[in-house]
Amino acid sequence: MRVDLGGIRMKNPVTVASGTFGYGAEYAKLVDVTRLGAITVKGIRLQPWPGNPLPRHVEVPGGMVNAIGLQGPGVEGFARDYMPFLRTTGVPVIVNIWGTSEEEYAEVARRLSEVEGVSGLELNISCPNVKEGGNAFGTDPRAVASLVAAVRRATRLPLMPKLAPNVPDIKLFVRAAQEAGADALALINTLPAMVIDIETRRPVLANKVGGLSGPAIHPVAVKLVWEAAQVARVPLLAMGGIVGPEEAIEFLIAGASAVAVGTANFIDPTTSLRVLEGIEAYLRRHGMNAVAALTGSLL
Amino acid sequence: MRVDLGGIRMKNPVTVASGTFGYGAEYAKLVDVTRLGAITVKGIRLQPWPGNPLPRHVEVPGGMVNAIGLQGPGVEGFARDYMPFLRTTGVPVIVNIWGTSEEEYAEVARRLSEVEGVSGLELNISCPNVKEGGNAFGTDPRAVASLVAAVRRATRLPLMPKLAPNVPDIKLFVRAAQEAGADALALINTLPAMVIDIETRRPVLANKVGGLSGPAIHPVAVKLVWEAAQVARVPLLAMGGIVGPEEAIEFLIAGASAVAVGTANFIDPTTSLRVLEGIEAYLRRHGMNAVAALTGSLL
Amino acid sequence: MMKDVTCRVIGQTPLTAGYWALDMEAPGLAEAAQPGQFVHVRVPGLEPIALRRPFSIFGTEGTTLKLLYKTVGRGTSQMNRLVPGDPVQVIGPLGNGFPLEPRGEPLLVAGGYGVAPLAFLAGRLPTKGVVLIGGRSADDVLAVTAFERLGWTVRVATEDGSLGETGLVTVPLDRELARLHEAGATPELFSCGPDGLLRAVGERAIQAGCRGWLSLDKHMVCGVGACLACVQRLRREDGTEWIGRVCRDGPVFEAREIVW
Amino acid sequence: MMKDVTCRVIGQTPLTAGYWALDMEAPGLAEAAQPGQFVHVRVPGLEPIALRRPFSIFGTEGTTLKLLYKTVGRGTSQMNRLVPGDPVQVIGPLGNGFPLEPRGEPLLVAGGYGVAPLAFLAGRLPTKGVVLIGGRSADDVLAVTAFERLGWTVRVATEDGSLGETGLVTVPLDRELARLHEAGATPELFSCGPDGLLRAVGERAIQAGCRGWLSLDKHMVCGVGACLACVQRLRREDGTEWIGRVCRDGPVFEAREIVW
Ligand SMILES: Cc1cc2nc3c(=O)[nH]c(=O)nc-3n(C[C@H](O)[C@H](O)[C@H](O)COP(=O)(O)OP(=O)(O)OC[C@H]3O[C@@H](n4cnc5c(N)ncnc54)[C@H](O)[C@@H]3O)c2cc1C
Ligand SMILES: Cc1cc2nc3c(=O)[nH]c(=O)nc-3n(C[C@H](O)[C@H](O)[C@H](O)COP(=O)(O)OP(=O)(O)OC[C@H]3O[C@@H](n4cnc5c(N)ncnc54)[C@H](O)[C@@H]3O)c2cc1C
Ligand SMILES: Cc1cc2nc3c(=O)[nH]c(=O)nc-3n(C[C@H](O)[C@H](O)[C@H](O)COP(=O)(O)O)c2cc1C
Ligand SMILES: Cc1cc2nc3c(=O)[nH]c(=O)nc-3n(C[C@H](O)[C@H](O)[C@H](O)COP(=O)(O)O)c2cc1C
Ligand code: FES
Ligand code: FES
C-alpha cells in the first residue's frame, strides 16, 4: 500500500484534507491517527491569523459551505504547540501553507524546512475564503508558476501546490506548477459558493462567500483529477467529497496516487480508516498488489 | 410579477431551464405551461444533431450528471415540429442555440429571427458536453465578446448568452458579453463533472464527462449570480439547483431578475409553478409589489 | 392520458427471493393503463432530488395499480419499506403499449422482471397462447400461475436448471417457433427482458417473417420525452433512420424498427 | 474521555409543546459525563453527510444518557421520529463542564433548553440554591419539578406572563442577587441560554464581583476542536486576548473570559 507522493513517503494512500482534521491531536481519541498515510494540517501562514468572523459555516444539500478564513497559530505557534504531538505519531506531516505574497509563502516554507518532522508542504493557492492570497494566486497560471518557483528556491521539502477548481482548463495549472518545480499536486479545494438567508436577506456567512465541500463536489473533483492526470508528470493527491472507499477508488482510477478525506471526518471521524480498509479490500479483490496498479487505470 | 428580461416580456419571473423541459409540449399534460413566464427550449444548432451515445446521465448525490450532447432537430425541424404548439401557449419562447463556429451561431440566430413566436435567444456558450462549441467559447472573454458581437449583427431578437460557471472571474464575462451587445445574461450552466464505475473502471457516461446539475450546484450558482450582478447592466436569468421557492428567492436577492427551474422538473414537473406561487407569497408577505423590489436586495 | 398522481400503497407481497409485487391505489391512472405502458415512481425515502424510477405496469384492477419489481439498487430497496397507506407520487400511464390485436398466434417471451408487462398483456389479448419465461435461476421465474390462470401455457427455462429446462429461453422459443411453423401458423412475438433477449427475439421475428414487439429497458430521467436521456436509434419503414425516445416513442417497438 | 458510541434509543417523552426528553443507552459515555459537557449527535434519517448536532447532557443514570431538545429545524424534527431500539451515533462527552465546587451560593439561570445542563448540574452540586428559569411563554419553562425534587428553589419568569412572573428572567435574578447581597453571601452564577441572557448574567457576575459560568451555544461542525467553526474571542487573566473553540475550550467559560 506504500505511496511516494513526490517525496512524501506514505505507508498507504490515505490522508486527511487540510482544515478538516485540525492538527491531528483533536481527533486522536476517536481515530487511530498512526494508521494514516499522512496527516495534513490546517493552513498556516507566517504569523498567527485570526480568520473570519462567525458564522463560518452553513450546511447545504450534499455538503457544507465554509469560510473559516485560515485561522492559525503561525509558523512558530504551530512548531511549538502542535509538532510535538505530530512527531509522536510517526506519520508524515504535510503542512498546508499560505501567505499574501510570494515572499511570505517562501518564508513560511524556509522556516518549516527547519522544523523537525515536517514531511512536505501543501501550497494553498486556492482558498476562496481570504481576500488576499489563496484563490487570487491559484487562478492565473503565471502567478502559480512564479509562486511555486519562489517557494522552490526556499525549501527542499516536497512541494505540493493545491490547485483551484474554478478554472476552465486545469491542465495549464498542472503544467505551470510542475515546470516550476512542484513535486506533487493536490486537488481540489472547495468551490467558491454563497448562501443567502431569504428572511434576513443577508449572506449566511459573515465573509459572504465561502467554499463548498462534501459529496456535492465529488463529480467535479473526479473530472479535474482525470484531466490533470493527462498532463501530470508528478503524483496527484485527490480530494473532494470522499465519504467512503468508492469515491476514493474513483479518484485513484482517474489518476490520483493518494487521496484525502475532508468534510466526511466531521460526520464520521473514522472515514479515513474506512476508506483505507476499503481500498485494501478492493485491491485484494481485483488481484492488484499495489496502489500504483489502480492509479490512472481508467479504461 | 412582470419582468422584462432584456426585451423578453415575461408575465412572471419563472421559466424552465433549457434541456430540462423539452419543447414545452412534453410536459404540457402535467403542467399548465401557459402559466410560465417563458418557455426555454432544448439547445438547437443549424442542422439536426444526434447528440452523444448512451448512457447520457447518471444520478449523483445532490443531483445528476448529464451528457446529452445537445441532440436536436435543427432550426428547420424546430420551427416545423415544435413552434406550432409553442405558439398556442401564448408564452414567450426562449430558444437555446449553439454552433461550432461564430458563423453557425449567427446563422441560427438569423433564421430564428424569421420564425414567428420566438421571443429571445439564449446563447449556449457553456455546454460541457460537446467537443466543439459550447464550453470552448464560454471560457475566454475575448471569444465571448467576438461571438456575441457576431450574433448581435445577425438578429434583433433579445440576446442572452448563457455563461460558463468554471471560470475564476465571472465579471470578465459579464462585461465582455454586455459590451458586445447582450440584452440579458443567463447563468449558470452545469459544472463539468465525471463519474467512474469502479467495477468496470470506465466512465459511466459514454461521453466520459458531463455536466453536474441539481441542488449540489446551487450555492455555486448563487455566488456567481451575486458576483455577476455587481457589474451587470443587463438583467440576469439565474438557474442551478432550484427545487422550491427558497432557492429561487436567493437568486433574486443575489441580483437575478428571473429564474429557471432545471433538474427539479424531472422529479416534480410542477416545480416551476410551485416556485412561482412561492415567490408571489413571499412578495406579499414582505409587502413588495414587484419582483424588481427583490432583485439585488441583498443587505 | 398521463397524470401525476399521489397513490396510496395498498400493500406489497414477496414473490420469489428479491422480487416483490406492489399494489397501490391509483385512481385516474390505473383505469387508463394499457399493457406495455409504464409508470415513473418518485420513491419515498430517497433524497428529495433523487430521480424517479420507471416500472412497467404489471396489471390493474379498477383503480388499483400493480407493479412487480426486483430489488437491485437504492431505489428498489427503499421501495421495499413501503407499507399500506404510504403516499407515493406516480406519473403514468406513460409510453405506448403493445398492440392488442395481433395478426398471428401470440407468443410471449419474458426475461426476469420482463414478465410484468407481459402478464398484463396476457389478460388483455383476445387469444391465448404460449408464454416462455427465462431467468438465471428459479427465483427469476415469476407469475407462472398468473399466466396459467389466464389460460396461457407456460414454459420455463433457467440458466442453472433450477426450474424448467436448463439453458437460455431461446431454446424453447426456437422449438415453439418450429412447432407453429410446422402447424402453418404465423406467430406474433411479444417480449420484455434484458437487451440480449430482446435482440434474440427480434432476430427470430425477422427470420420468421412475423411481427416481434419488444419492450426496451433504458435508464430514464424525465419519462415523458423531454430530456433525451433514453434515446434509441430507430429505422422507418422507408429505411431512413431517426432517434426515438424510449419513454415516449416506446417503450414497445417492432423488431424491424430497432437499429441495435 | 470522548468516544464515538452507537447508542440505542430507550425512549422519548414529550415535555411541553415542542420540547422532548430523549433517553439513550450510552455505555462508556454516560458514566464519564460531567454537567456542562455535551454530545455530538448524528441524527438518523438525515442525508449521510448531514452535520452532527450538538446537545447538552441533560442527565445520566448509569449507562443512560438523557438529552432534552427543542424541535427547531430539520435535525431536531427528525430526532422526533426516533423510537426505542433505534441506533444513534453519538460522540461524547465533549467540552469542559461547570466547576462542581462553587465558592459561593449557587444561582442557576436558564433560558429555554438551557435548563438541560443546569438540571444535570443541580444534581451534582454539593449545595442547593435557587434556579431561575426564563422563557418566552409557559412552554419554554422546563424541568421545574426536576429541580424541585433535587431540593432547589425554582423561580419562573415568562415574557408573556403565561407562567411565573411577567418579564425577563433578569428581573428575579436581580432580586435574588440583591437578597444574597443583603444576606452578605457571595453568589456564584451558572447560566445557559441565548447569548442575550448569557451576556446579562455575565455583566451581573462582574458587577457583583462573583464568578459567573456561562455555557455558550455556537453552531458547530466537528465538535472536537478541529474545524474552527465555533470560535469565541476570549481574554486571559493577564488581559491578553485569544481565540478559543467553544466545543473544546468551552462550552462553559467564566464571564470575565468572554469578549462579547
Ligand atoms: C420502461 C421500463 C420498465 C421497467 N419495468 C420494470 C419492472 O416492471 N420491474 C422492475 O423490477 N424493474 C423495471 N424496470 C427497471 C427499473 O426501472 C430499475 O430496476 C430501477 O430503476 C432500479 O432502481 P434502483 O434505484 O433500485 O437501482 P440503482 O442502480 O440504484 O439506480 C440508479 C439509477 O439507474 C437507474 N436504473 C438502474 N437500473 C435500471 C434499469 N434496469 N432500467 C432503467 N433504469 C435503471 C435508476 O432508475 C436510477 O436512476 C423498468 C425499466 C424501464 C425503463
Ligand atoms: C454546546 C451546545 C449545547 C446545546 N444543547 C442543546 C440542548 O440541550 N437542547 C436543545 O434543544 N438544543 C441544544 N443546542 C442547540 C442545538 O444544537 C440546535 O437546536 C440544533 O443543532 C438544531 O438543529 P436542527 O437541524 O433542528 O436545526 P437547523 O436550523 O435545521 O440546523 C441547521 C444547522 O444549524 C445548526 N444549528 C441550528 N441552531 C443551532 C443552535 N442553536 N446551536 C447550535 N447549532 C445550531 C445545526 O446544528 C445545523 O448544523 C445546543 C447547542 C450547543 C452548541
Ligand atoms: C472546514 C474546512 C476547512 C478547510 N480548511 C482548509 C485549509 O486550511 N487549507 C486548505 O487548503 N483547504 C482547506 N479546506 C479544503 C479541504 O482541505 C478540501 O480541499 C475540501 O474540503 C474538499 O474536500 P471534501 O469535500 O472531502 O471536504 C477546508 C475545508 C473545510 C470543510
Ligand atoms: C438533461 C439536461 C439537459 C440540458 N440541456 C441543456 C441545453 O440543451 N442547453 C443549455 O444551455 N443547458 C442545458 N442544460 C443545463 C440547464 O439548462 C441548467 O443550466 C442546469 O441544469 C442548471 O440548472 P438545474 O440545476 O436547475 O438543473 C441541461 C441540463 C440537463 C440536466
Ligand atoms: S427519459 Fe427523458 S426523454 Fe426519455
Ligand atoms: S466545532 Fe469544530 S472547532 Fe468547534
Describe this entry's structure for a reader:
- The complex is a heterotetramer, with two copies of chain A (299 residues) and two copies of chain C (260 residues).
- Chain A has eleven helices and 16 strands.
- Chain A is of the alpha/beta class.
- Chain A has one domain (3-293): TIM Barrel, CATH 3.20.20.70.
- Chain A has a four-stranded parallel β-sheet. Chain A has a four-stranded parallel β-sheet with strand order 4-7-8-9, covered by helices on one side.
- In chain A, helix 5 runs parallel beside helix 6 and helix 7 runs parallel beside helix 8.
- Chain A is globular, with a radius of gyration of 18 Å.
- The two termini of chain A are 22 Å apart.
- The model of chain A has no long low-confidence stretch (mean pLDDT 96).
- By secondary structure, chain C is α/β, with parallel strands linked by helices.
- Chain C has two domains: 3-94, Elongation Factor Tu (Ef-tu), domain 3; 105-215, Nucleotide-binding domain of ferredoxin-NADP reductase (FNR) module (Rossmann fold).
- Chain C has a seven-stranded antiparallel β-sheet.
- The model of chain C has no long low-confidence stretch (mean pLDDT 96).
- Chains in contact: A-B, A-D, B-C.
- The A-D interface holds A 19-22, 26-27, 29-30, 42, 50-51, 54-57, 59, 61-64, 66, 68, 71, 214-215, 243, 263-270 and D 1-4, 42, 47-52, 89, 91, 218-219, 221-222, 224-231, 243, 248.
